[in-house]
Amino acid sequence: MVSTETVRTIVGIIGNVISFGLFLSPVPTMVKIYKNKSVQAFKPDPYVMTVLNCMMWVFYGMPFVHPDSTLVWTINGAGLIMELIYVSVFLIYSNWPIRRKILVVLLIEVIFMAAVVLVTMLALHTTKKRTLVVGILAIIFNIGMYASPLTVMKRVIKTRSVKYMPFYLSLANFANGLIWTVYALLKFDINLLLPNGLGALSGLVQLILYAIYYKSTKWDDEPEKPTANVQLSRTNNNNA
């Protein structure tokens, strides 16, 4: 009989593959920015915030914080590298005011993360306490990032159009949240269960809206100027 730990490992690997696909989803946007040598109306905010989210989950997955979470820090480590690349694209092709804002926020994130690491390692001396504190922080930042798809879903309902809510991204968000929810249940981890359960629910709602408003969508309308709201958050994530 296959052990629960083996099943959990397999589920975690599948989750890594799906999450990696989500982290790659902004590539077309980055290619568009590169070709136009301008960020146009695209906003760096989701990418800058995802950097902090990934850093928090990488730290959470460390064996001295939460043992047996290798598949958590590996995917978020890969995600962190990709998000830093995306942020670098914005730094290169943005004007100075936007570039300055990005640099300030990144500095604040690094200082905050350094403070979390120092307090965790110096004041909390057991993995149970570290898991609790870092897990709560990770949940807060993860749940906070679900605000992005809410804006898109509101737009879908208002316009009765799913033109700017990509089906495959919504499907990937649902699959990602679902697989990590299963992973969290196999070896009960409330810190993974809460944000990914909400992620699965968010993805499911997006798919339901897609089914409802697909027929009323006018696909041949003139494309609107791209905005940050057109981009669904990939860290629903993201992932663990």
UniProtKB/TrEMBL annotation:
Keyword Ubl conjugation: no
Gene Ontology BP terms: protein homooligomerization
Primary location recorded for the protein, binned into one broad class: membrane
Location of this chain's protein in the cell: Cell membrane; Endomembrane system
UniProt keyword Membrane present: yes
Source organism superkingdom: Eukaryota
Cross-referenced Pfam families: MtN3_slv
InterPro entries given in the database record: SWEET (IPR047664), SWEET_rpt (IPR004316)
A GO term, aspect molecular function: sugar transmembrane transporter activity
GO CC terms in record: endomembrane system; plasma membrane
TM stretches of this protein: 6-25, 46-65, 71-93, 102-125, 131-153, 165-186, 192-213
Keywords for this protein: Membrane, Repeat, Sugar transport, Transmembrane, Transmembrane helix, Transport
Membrane topology, record value: Multi-pass membrane protein
Signal peptide bounds: none
The protein's role, per its UniProt record: Mediates both low-affinity uptake and efflux of sugar across the membrane.
Family from the record: Belongs to the SWEET sugar transporter family.
Protein name, UniProt field: Bidirectional sugar transporter SWEET
